Q: What sequence folds into this?
């Protein structure tokens, strides 16, 4: 496979999934430049993550649990969460619960996309390998982003429980990401991965629907329809 087709195949899944989640915003789509910024920031997180992961492996070893829950899930989700809390959580454009999902999936898919490019060029790319990465690691990052963004949205719009929801927005993606990676290290991973991905997709679609239903812009839209 030549460079351009490999690069396009590595990038396409992340862009396609981001477009899907972006267009799921029923009431007011987010500024495209801000979503693109979060995507690029997600890409930039890959390099510090790789450096820190190397240090974690040197210090604590590379056992399956450490690789899955500490080096991968714990570190990667913490970096994404930190960026979102610092740059997006109080941003004026974050004005409805679903926006948390848009921005979190943007950061997550930016990370997954550059990671995918590295794997494509450092490994031995084939159509089967790129398809595997599109359906599993890239999709997995997107679904962990939905989880994170859903609870960030709840934290912002239910300030009385903000502490709880902020904690869940970090803890749940770490747990599920860790489970995902741990399964991939098992010899019979396919039998556990298929039901896991099905469950995560179903839960994510439910969160998308609930986040949209809680939008304060929904009532405004209904009033405008009645007046019309």
A:
């Amino acid at each position: 496979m030549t460079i351009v087709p490999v690069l396009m195949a590595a990038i396409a899944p992340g862009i396609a999934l981001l477009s899907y989640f972006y267009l799921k915003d029923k009431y007011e789509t987010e500024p495209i430049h801000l979503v693109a910024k979060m995507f690029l920031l997600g890409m930039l997180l890959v390099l510090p993550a790789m450096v820190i992961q190397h240090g974690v492996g040197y210090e604590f070893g590379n056992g399956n649990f450490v690789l899955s829950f500490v080096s991968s899930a714990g570190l990667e989700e913490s970096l994404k969460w930190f960026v979102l809390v610092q740059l997006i959580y109080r941003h004026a454009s974050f004005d409805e619960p679903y926006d948390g999902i848009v921005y979190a999936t943007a950061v997550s898919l930016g990370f997954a996309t550059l990671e995918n490019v590295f794997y494509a060029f450092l490994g031995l790319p084939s159509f089967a390998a790129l398809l595997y990465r599109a359906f599993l690691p890239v999709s997995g990052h997107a679904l962990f982003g939905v989880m994170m963004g859903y609870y960030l949205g709840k934290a912002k719009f239910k300030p009385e429980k903000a502490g709880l929801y902020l904690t869940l927005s970090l803890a749940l993606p770490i747990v599920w990401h860790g489970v995902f990676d741990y399964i991939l290290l098992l010899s019979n991973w396919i039998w556990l991965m298929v039901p896991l991905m099905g469950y995560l997709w179903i839960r994510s679609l439910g969160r998308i629907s609930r986040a949209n239903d809680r939008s304060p812009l929904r009532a405004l839209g209904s009033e405008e329809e009645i007046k019309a």
